[in-house]
Specification:
Chain lengths: 244, 244
């Protein structure tokens, strides 16, 4: 992760993100793309995005790699951790050595170490003056440090998340931020419910269920939010996901 | 520290509801609880009235409770006309916040907006009663003055809505049992909703019913809801086989 992100790769990512800002826009899918591309730029370090709910609790929204272990690490940060710190202070937490962080984050740090991570970074998500969440980057490498230039780049990518919210607002008649955030938080719940339904129906783990749902979305060119809603209301109507 | 703050918010709203006098000697049951919730919400949010309408995808709709008779008529009006913030909040699964009915709302709801404006309503705030794809209805807050809810009022309104969801799911007023039901700091929210999706498939019931069954199981066996959810996801507990 020490290698500085190349300008070409970065430019490609921004073009790809700009290309998604169309009418058929799904906020969670957009955040997933953003997390995935940020992870690619940082040599596949897992990246997650969290948004704050009405109580100021950080809720997981999207990640480059969505599995039970990572979800738990995002989850615990509504109590403590680099994301909560970045969110509360509005400044990035960079190059935090997890082995040395047990005092700072007694709940978070040991779990992260156990999951195989060495260092962690968190960047505030901002929408103009408002802080709305945080972007989390993990590294499993010893001394996996972000160079100063990379810090600026990752913060810029985190700022792109807010462009997604602005875009959604532009196509939905000037919706308010609080309306959007509530909607986004609720659609994340729908995705978890859909994962459970498919896991039960297919007799697979929830992680595998999520892979199946995403594959179905991709091969049918459907949006994740739509498909998750359809699963929770009429799973039998999607035989590909309903039966083994 | 922040976790305590969230708990305080629930406790505060619960206290507001329980200190509200019961109507006409009807002190127990869902309808009495809902009526008290509406009256407490109206008072706490400086509203002229607050109403709860239960809605279902099947089209079944009805006003469940309102702080007072005029507000009940306003609620019924939306259902009669088939348009209004309540209908939109249910459909979009997001809050619909209208701080000034004279500004834009007249074209958005050409029949509803002038009708409630004539009744002295100047602002309407509609909050969906939902858990992901499980949609139960909408809470409407009416005000006789224009202006947006303050951030604190918005949080308060969302907390009232969350407690209304818990009360509706329980089917009876448990007197404080709703206290932060979604806010177990040690529990995994993702797992809770995944389990809900699994139980929906196990029992072939709606998502809302699945949550009712999980909550009932937790209550009867004196378990934490989040522990029940963890057992379901780990397949240590299944609702489609006879319970020990």
């Amino acid at each position: 992760m020490t290698a500085t992100v190349s300008a070409q790769r970065l430019a490609k990512v921004f073009v790809e993100i700009a290309d998604t800002l169309v009418d058929e826009f799904d906020l969670i899918e957009f955040l997933q793309l953003l997390a995935g591309r940020t992870a690619d730029l940082l040599d596949a370090s897992p990246v997650g995005l969290l948004l704050a709910d009405q109580h100021g609790r950080l809720e997981f929204m999207a990640a480059s790699d969505e599995n039970v272990k990572l979800l738990e690490l995002f989850q615990v940060q509504n109590q403590q951790g680099p994301c909560l710190d970045a969110f509360l202070t509005g400044t990035p937490v960079v190059n935090a050595d997890l082995q040395q962080a047990a005092d700072r984050w007694p709940l978070f740090a040991p779990r992260a170490v156990q999951a195989g991570f060495r260092s962690v970074h968190a960047f505030p998500l901002r929408l103009r003056a408002e802080r709305i969440g945080a972007m989390n980057v993990f590294s499993s490498r010893v001394g996996g440090r972000l160079a100063d230039t990379d810090v600026e780049i990752v913060q810029a990518l985190a700022d792109v998340a807010s462009i997604g919210l602005l875009q959604e607002r532009a196509i939905s008649r000037g919706e308010r931020l609080s309306e959007q955030l509530q909607g986004a938080l609720n659609s994340r719940i729908v995705i978890e419910q859909a994962k459970g339904a498919v896991a039960q129906s297919r007799g697979v783990s929830v992680d595998e269920a999520f892979r199946l749902i995403r594959a179905y979305c991709r091969s049918n060119n459907l949006r994740l939010g739509e498909v998750a809603n359809a699963i929770t209301t009429d799973l039998a109507g999607i035989p590909e996901l309903a039966s083994p | 520290m922040r976790v305590t703050a969230v708990g305080d918010r629930y406790a505060r709203v619960e206290a507001l509801i329980s200190s509200e006098p019961a109507a006409d000697g009807d002190t127990h049951g869902v309808s009495a609880g809902m009526h008290r919730l509406c009256s407490a919400a109206a008072r706490a949010l400086s509203a002229s009235g607050t109403g709860l309408t239960v809605m279902a995808d099947s089209g079944l709709r009805g006003v469940t409770a309102a702080s007072d008779a005029p507000t009940e008529r306003l609620e019924e009006l939306q259902l009669t006309l088939g348009e209004g913030p309540c209908i939109d909040a249910y459909g979009s699964m997001r809050p619909v916040l209208v701080p000034d009915l004279a500004d834009g709302a007249m074209t958005r709801w050409p029949v509803y907006a002038p009708a409630v404006h004539a009744e002295g309503v100047r602002a309407v705030f509609a909050f969906p009663l939902q858990v992901g794809a499980a949609r139960l209805g909408v809470m409407d807050v009416f005000r006789s003055e224009t202006g947006m809810l303050s951030p604190d009022e918005l949080t308060l309104a969302l907390t009232f809505a969350e407690i209304a969801v818990a009360t509706l799911l329980d089917g009876h007023d448990r007197g404080g049992a709703a206290d932060g039901w979604l806010d177990d700091p040690l529990g995994s929210r993702a797992e809770l909703f995944q389990a809900q999706g699994m139980v929906m498939v196990q029992l072939r019931v709606s998502l809302a019913e699945a949550m009712v069954r999980m909550r009932a199981h937790a209550f009867v066996h004196d378990l934490r809801l989040y522990d029940v959810a963890a057992d379901v996801v780990a397949r240590r507990l299944s609702f489609d086989t006879p319970q020990p």
